[in-house]
Specification:
315 residues, alpha+beta, disordered C terminus, 13 helices, single chain
Length: 315
């Protein structure tokens, strides 16, 4: 496990999301507000993840209490990660405090699937729920009584502006969270955040190159007109990729007849190879090796960049 110590947390999650989250990118602004508020009110431990279609930040404490929003939402993308190989980048976030406008803290890189399953196993049953009503302040209810009589309780006490779940034993929850931190520290090794983000960027390119190669190998008949085979470049990759990323992607693909271009009025970019091309080739290992080492592809391995997006595609 890598840990990134004393970093600007808001800048860190923004940099990570830029390598992975192509859709619902405004989620990150919601997460930043949650983190700012947590730093101000002393909620030090959070969980955060980036997935291709959004991001999410939840309090670690609530993730381990049954039926809280955090407990339900944190492990909810395990099927997507398994079935369609969605890349979910998960982190434990331990806040240190504010430094001017910055929120400082330490990020621990998690294996999302392993951590989500761990949360499911370690979850404590909810025993009480406290609601902060607009009139009358906080009121504490037995969890089961509240669930059975929720409508009547809310009709009687009115609107509430906050809810907190508690397990039967606060001490048990405290021990669990303390053990979570201890286990992270035991497994973690200090790492450089900039290098981590660079590796995420390169992995994004390598993964897309492999996906395109696999897709070309799975085609039996030309499907792109003019005797060519065609595969769409991932829309998420297109949203995330810089011009340099696209050049590296083209360099990693092994096809001599390769072109990447729009297809008429169809949104997006498409990769084409001729029907004479050997589609059993693999991703260029030399390019992959250089990316893995943090080096640029050599000049002879670069290909022409795809055409600029039209106004319609840019929208």
């Amino acid at each position: 496990m890598e840990k990134f110590e004393h970093v600007d947390v808001l800048a860190a999650i923004d940099a990570i999301a830029r390598q992975n989250t192509g859709y619902n990118q405004n989620d990150i602004e919601v997460d930043k507000q949650i983190i700012r508020e947590a730093a101000e009110d002393g909620t030090n431990n959070l969980l955060w993840y980036s997935r291709p279609a959004g991001t999410r930040c939840v309090p670690e404490r609530e993730a381990f209490i049954e039926n809280t929003w955090a407990n339900l939402v944190w492990p909810s993308y395990t099927d997507a990660a398994r079935l369609d190989d969605s890349r979910i980048l998960a982190y434990a976030v331990e806040l240190e405090g504010l430094d001017g406008r910055k929120v400082m803290g330490t990020l621990y890189a998690l294996d999302y699937l392993q951590h989500a399953e761990h949360v499911k196993r370690a979850t404590l049953p909810a025993a009480f729920v406290t609601l902060n009503f607009d009139d009358g302040g906080p009121r504490r209810f037995d969890y089961n009584d509240f669930k059975e009589n929720e409508k009547r309780i809310l009709q009687h006490f009115g609107h509430f502006k906050g809810m907190e779940y508690e397990p039967r034993s606060k001490m048990e929850l405290h021990r669990l969270l303390r053990q979570e931190h201890a286990d992270r520290e035991k497994a973690a090794r200090p790492a450089d955040l900039d290098a981590h983000v660079k590796r995420l960027a390169d992995d994004k390119i390598i993964n897309e190159a492999q996906r395109l190669v696999d897709s070309f190998q799975g085609l039996y008949n030309p499907n792109g007109g003019a005797g060519r085979f065609m595969v769409e470049v991932s829309p998420i990759f297109c949203k995330l990729a810089t011009e340099a990323d696209m050049k590296k992607l083209l360099a990693a693909l092994p096809y001599k007849s390769l072109s990447v271009e729009p297809r008429g009025d169809v949104p997006g970019l498409f990769a084409f190879v001729s029907k004479e091309e050997n589609r059993d080739q693999e991703v260029r290992r030399s390019v992959v090796a250089r990316l893995r080492q943090g080096r640029e592809p050599e000049a002879g391995e670069r290909r022409k960049k795809p055409p600029a997006k039209t106004d319609r595609e840019a929208r």
